Amino acid sequence: MISAADPAPDATIDLLLKRGVERHLVSGGVVVVGNHSGILSVTARGRLDGEPEAPLLDERTIFDLASLTKVVATAPAVMKLLDQGKIKLSSPLARWFPEFRHSRHRKITILELLTHTSGLYDPPLRPSPFVRTLVRGAAAERGARARGGRFRYADINFILLAELVHRVSGKSLDVFCREQIYSPLGMRETMFSPPKGLADPLAPTIGLNNGSDF
Q1: For helices 155-169 and 131-140, what crossing angle results, to 10°?
Q2: What is the enclosing helix (H) or strand (E) of 166?
Q3: What does each C-alpha distance from 195 to 153, 155, 183, 190 come to in angstroms?
Q4: How far is it, in rounded angstroms, from Cα 150 to Cα 134?
Q5: Domains of the chain as residue ranges with CATH
Q6: Cβ(173)–Cβ(142) under 8 Å?
Q7: Which of 178, 170, 167 is nearest to 76 (CA)?
Q8: Please, what sign has the CA dihedral across residues 183, 187, 190, 196?
Q9: Whole-angstrom Cα distance, residue 204 to residue 212?
Q10: pLDDT of 46-92, one tens digit each?
Q11: Is the pTM of this model over 0.90?
């Protein structure tokens, strides 16, 4: 949590954010700049959403990280398992996924999933898909490109990595991250599925209602 004693807004950043709001490029935003010594500046402009009566943003606003979950949850969790010696980047996914053992994609490695070079395409994603259905679909996919080739961003890579964390650790991604990453770092307001008490200060992502659909 940023305290009231933190530095004032940087004039240049504040002007850029102000212009972005005035030109309707964004409804609002919060910019925190810091280094190893601490926070250097904090700037907040605009409102929670595009409605004129929406609450103003401030340094206490919590944002839905959406696809940034890949880099603040899934990737760090995979790196934690790597540090613990429980996985290797060169290991084939099929070691933990029997669904892939007889698949043409059985040699896909953890590293290829992390770097989006698995060659897999995204399957049709529904609002609440069963992970096992997505896993079976990826294993059976026939239109995929050759693994280890060009970078091709696909959500299925990190869906598989999130399930890898579950299968290796025995804990779901949210629980693993809370226990192994966020709590040790004192990140008390970084979480999955925030409780109702935090709903009001949450800035929504397109299609989501105040982060309640994490």
Answers
A1: 120
A2: helix 155-169
A3: 31, 26, 17, 12
A4: 23
A5: 68-184 (3.40.710.10)
A6: no
A7: 178
A8: positive
A9: 9
A10: 988 878 888 889 888 888 888 889 999 999 999 999 999 999 999 99
A11: no
